[in-house]
Design a protein that fits this description.
By secondary structure, this protein is α+β, with helices and mostly antiparallel strands. The protein has 9 helices and 29 strands. The protein has a 7-stranded antiparallel sheet, sandwiched between helices. It has a 6-stranded antiparallel sheet with strand order 2-1-11-10-7-8. Helix 4 packs parallel to helix 5 and helix 5 runs antiparallel to helix 6. The longest helix has 45 residues. The protein is elongated, with a radius of gyration of 32 Å.
Length: 549
Amino acid sequence: MVTSPSQSNSYRPPFKGEVLRLSAVAGPPRDSIELTRAGGVIGRGSTCEVKLVDPTVSRKHASISCQDENWLIKDLGGANGTLLNEVRIEHPSILAEGDRIRVGPWVLQVGAMNTTSVAMKTLDDAGESDRVRRVSPAQTASLARHRLNLFIECAARINQAVDESSLWDSIMASAIEGSGFGRSALLRTDANAESVEIIAYRGMGGDDRPDDLSRSLIRAAAEGDMAQLLSDDQPAYGQSIADLNIHSALCCPIMVDEIVAACLYLDARGSEAAVQNDAASFCQALVRIAGLAMANLRRRELIERQHKMESDLSAAREAQRFMLPESRGTVSTMPYAVQFQPGRYASGDLFDVMALPDGKVAFALGDVSGKGIGAAILMAAAQSHLHSVLLRSGDPTEAVNAVNSYVLSHSAVNRFISMWVGVLDPSTMEIVYVDAGHGHWAHCRSDGSCRSEQIAAHPPVGIDGDTQFDSLVLKCDPGDRIVLMTDGVVEQPKEDQEQFGMERALEVLRGTRDPHSDVEGLHKAVCDFAQTDQLADDTTIASIMFPSI
C-alpha cells in the first residue's frame, strides 16, 4: 500500500513559510495562487486578492492571514460557507500542508502539489460505455444475512482508525475482503475524471501504482453515483480495458457532508476469483461508514488545531493581563485611563504607567509589528525591559535606546516596535518624551483644543542599531491631557476601506474633558465608524491628565 505524505498522521503541523501557495485541484481551470504574509480575501469582488467569479462565491467569501508563524483561514459569512477538508469552517482555523479549501466550485490545495499526491491519467474507455451501469440505491438496499457479521467486523475496523492513513488501509482491506475484488485504490478527482490523485492502493503488485483506471466509472462516482463494469462478453475494442483482461470493476463515492471526498475503486481481472454477487451492496454500505469515519477524523483534527491555537493564545492573554496596569486610576496626582482591545485573542500593543521619584510619572504606549503570539511575547519582553530602565533612571531617552538594543539582539528579523515614551512632571508642567515611529498621539488642552504632530521624530525601535533616540520637551498647562493610541484606531477601515484617521480622532477629543471620556468616546467612535466592535487590529487608547489647579 502507498499513501500520500500529507495523510500520514491525524494531526498535521501548521503550514510554515513566507508565501502560501494554493493550487486549484478541482473546479474551473485557473493558475495557482501565491499569498504573501499580508494575506488576502477570497471572493468574487473586484478588490479580492484571490478572485473566484461564480454565483456560488460571495463577494467576500473567506480571508487568509498570517499571524505570527501560522496561516489562518476565516469564513466571512457567505451563504454557501467555506469548507476546510470537507468540513464547514465555523471559527478561524490554522492551515496545514495539503489542506483543501472548497469555495464554490473550486477546491484549492495548500502547498506544493508534488508533495501531497500522485497524479495520473485515467483510461479513456468511452467505447465501452454500454458495459458501465450506474447502480441505483434500490439495488443495494440490503445485505445478505450471512455476510452481516463480516460487514460489522469491517465497520468496526474502519471506525477504530486513528488517522487518515489507517482509515484508508481499513477501507481497502475491508472492501477486498468483503467484495471478492482483487485490487483496490482510493483516489480523488474532479467531475471530468480525466486525471486522478492516488491516495492509496492495495493488491496491485508491489509498489506499482495503478495505471489503468476506468474514466467512465470514476466520472460517475465523482458525480455522487456508484457505478460498476459488468462481467459479460467483451468485444475487441483495441487498446482498452478489455485488453487488460479486467472482467469486473466498481467505483463508489465516499461522501463527507454531501460532498465527494474520495472514491473507492475496485477491479478484478484474469483468473482472479469471481466477485461476490452482493459486492455492490457491500461496498456501498462500506463507503457510507467510511464517509462518517472520515468526517469524524477531519472534525477531530480541526478541533485539535483550534484547541492548540486557543491554548497558546490563552497563555499569552494571561501573561498580558498580569503585566497591564489597571484600566483606570491615579498615579501620583495624575488621573489616567486606558482601553485595551486585542484584535485577535492576544495583542502586540504595549502600555505602561508608573510613578517615578519626585512625583514624576512615566507614560508609554507601543505597537509591535505583526500579530498573534509572537508579537505578544515580544511586547511582554520589551515592556518589562522598558519598565525596569525607567524605574532605574527616569529618563525616556535612555529607556528607549536600551529597548532598541534589546529588541535588535533578542527578536526575530523584521520585528520592530513603534513606541511613545514620556515622563510627565507636574511640578514643572512639562513632558519629556521620545516618539519612536509612533506619531499617533494628541495634546488636548483644557480649553478644548487638540493638536497632533502626526509625524514621529525617530524610526521605530528594533530597525537600526545605530539610531540614537533623543527626547523632546512639551510644555503643558493644568488640566491638559496627553492621549495616545495605536494604529488600530486611526487605520481602522470601514466597508469601503476608508480609514478612521487622526482628524476624526481629534474631533472626538475636542468634545471630551477627562481621561475616562477620552478613551470611552474614542473607542465608541471607532466602533461606530467600522459598524462593528470586532475591530481589524489591536486597539489601545490611553489618556493621562495634569492635575487642575
